[in-house]
Amino acid sequence: MLERWFELSAHGTTVRAEVRGGVVTFLTMSYIIFVQPGVLASAGMDFGAVLVATCLSSALATVIMALGANYPVALAPCMGENFFFVTVVSGVVTGQKVGWQAALAAVFLSGVLFLLLAAFRFREKIIDALPRSLKFAIPAGIGLFIAFIGLQQGGLVVAAPGSMVKLGDLGSPVALLSLFGLVVTAALMARRVTGAILLGILATTALGLASGVLRWQGLFDLPPDPRPVLLQLDLAALWDTAMIPVVVIFLFMVLFDTIGTLVGVGQQAGLLRDGKLERAGRALLADAVGTTAGALLGTSTVSSYIESAAGVAAGARTGLAALVTAAGFLLALFCYPLVKTVGGGVEVGAGVFLHPVTAPVMVLVGFLMLGSIRQVPWDDPAEAIPAFLVLVGMPLTYSIADGLALGFVAYPLLMLLAGRGRGVPALVYVMALLLGGVFVVKALLGG
Length: 447
Known about the structure:
By secondary structure, this protein is mostly helical. Helix content is 64%, strand content 6%. The longest helix is centred in the middle third of the chain and has 25 residues, at 244-268. The mean pLDDT is 81.
């Protein structure tokens, strides 16, 4: 049955290799189980309920990928999109605080739009129209933003009057634990150890428990109650025009995360045929359904994970490996106390929590995302300057939307001034007007 459904022989693989690859993929990406509840809890969401939503949405989307596309690609809530979710709730994007229920509605709508784009094959036109330099600058800018947040969450960077930020107290227990996690995880990555991020989390947790920085809360228990975030979308909030850029950015991020991951993992697994990814439509459907269902369950954007490449390196070639990974997410539902120990955070003040275990992960995921910047044509100022504005704009304005707006407004403007405006696709001008509207709204609201 497995041979007939997954065509193991045709892909040059075996059940043993697929199981091994699926386990490796789960171990490599399972850090999201520890990170996601902690990230969204900072937006006011229930930690345990988000854990359930994360595991269920990851398992569902991965099963769809396995059975529909037969790809060894796993899905889960995205790093980057989850932090953007938090910035939306905090009011950084719209200029006023937004309920997490409204942010979930924006994620849901972006998933529906992505589903329509996949169904009507519009995604290729969107991808072809966007400037190559900005495609590579956006993930890099988000990476810097994530790394900055990680440094803050680890107590390594703190607020300071005059200079805005400064180095934190490196002698504090939280900062020392964060530094330990950063060094250990980075060393494991440098030695190319499979599951380096997860091993780094485990090592940091062990030291945190031994030193008393973290408090042990148990290992196994029944899954938490999902109802605090289940079906809690505030769809009415989407009538607010300030939410339009939020939906567009969510859609934009999941679109390029998905395409990049599928092409990257597909190439490594030998799934590309004449430069094209077979069954790409089915794979995109898994992402779209995952994002839509994830929002209903109570979590941020769900998309394909580049960590699936680790499973491919271990032998995964078909959807059977993805099924094994999905089973791992379902088993994780019963490890809620352990997840609370690792990702719950350390209270350092009245209602102020730092996350020394997961903060190093944020910094290093930012490092991984920064790699795309090497593809920007730095010798062409008209291309490179907008990319640079995106790169520095996101962390320095503490806003993904503002960083995007800087780049998208600058690109067509510079191309026009350079006498190359006719070469800019119409869609880029539309995006420039749309995202430039963020600046107008902020100006009208007095900043």
